[in-house]
Design a protein that fits this description.
- The chain has ten helices and seven strands.
- With 245 residues, it is an alpha/beta fold.
- It folds into two domains: 134 residues, NAD(P)-binding Rossmann-like Domain (Rossmann fold, 3-Layer(aba) Sandwich); 93 residues, ProC C-terminal domain-like fold (Orthogonal Bundle), CATH 1.10.3730.
- A seven-stranded mixed beta sheet has the order 2-1-3-4-5-6-7, with helices on both faces.
- Helix 5 packs across helix 10.
- The two termini are 35 Å apart.
- 27% of the residues are buried.
Length: 245
Amino acid sequence: MKITILGAGVMGTIFQKALIEKKVFNSEDVQMVDHDQETKHGDTYLLAVKPQDFEETAKRLANVKDKLIISIMTGIPIKRMEKAMPGNRIVRSMPNLGAQSFKSMTVWMAGEGLPAEEQELVEKILSAIGEELEVDNEDLLDAATAVSGSGPGYVYYFARKMMESAQELGFKEEEADKLIKQTLEGTLQAWKDSGLSANELENRVTSKGGTTEAGLNEFRENNLGQTIVNGIKKAYQRAKELSKL
């Protein structure tokens, strides 16, 4: 069984490496095709192209029928892909930046007619770059775009502000960098290992009258929590707008 990856950019290259390293496909069965190369036909296709290149890509697959096509393009709805590439089984997915370290959170949904054996294959392909989550409502793919797709940007923003604060308090840049990276990594690992919710852990690390409480109270008084919620909702609205273009 061969898989053809259309798009030799960052994500296409990540998938190529992951599928081979995780032994989902043999190396000779993973075919990478860039935009200026002749399309190599396979049993499964992975669309790792930019959304603006979708129409051209669909034309390249005009003669492809009865195949599994997995898209990682942002904002291209399943119905549009089914119309442009009729007679195929379509899966739309939303990975995130963690794919670079095989730590992606990928949310996906299948169109009509996906048999059980292909569902299992989709899970294996997407699991090669991290964790996968299937949903049955395409609106949740736009929500995933706003939450997990854009999520790394939010985390980097907060980390940058923590870095700035550490430096204002007297740490050198390289010291602040080490402080924040290890704090974030350790916090995430503790969360994963504990089996507890973020709210439960927040309460555990917040002593009454202590330093953590003082910082959190400042965030709450300035409505930081609602600002974060509003920002994610704005990202979701934009994802919906892009889906209609």
